[in-house]
Amino acid sequence: MAIEKLLEEIRMLSPGDRYKLRSILEADKISEEDIEASKRSAGEWSDIDAEKMVEDIYRSREDNSGRVGVNW
After folding, report:
1. Which of 1, 15, 59, 72 is most buried by its number of CB atoms within 10 A?
2. CA–CA separation, 34 vs 17, rounded Å?
């Protein structure tokens, strides 16, 4: 059951992120440079107010009367 959930999460990744994940998993060892690059990348978003960003996104969607709905 946990594996199915993990696979579903992997399916939701972008193709680029799936490629990165595959590269990391295939590597014999994760380098210190890889770890530092991940830390730098994560730190770039540290000043984002996630709740405000989500509110802004939903507000802009509601305010956009020209937005076309998705027809699945």
Report:
1. 59
2. 14
DSSP structure string for 30-44 = --HHHHHHHHHHHHT
Distance CA 63, CA 38 (A): 36
- Give the span between the Cα atoms of 41 and 39, in whole angstroms: 5
pLDDT digits (tens, 9 = 90+) for 31-54: 888 778 777 766 666 677 888 888
- Three-state secondary structure call for residue 8: helix
Q: Name which of 20, 14, 12 is nearest 37 in CA terms.
A: 20
pTM of the model: 0.36
| Closest by CA position to 21, among listed 9, 32, 3, 33 | 9
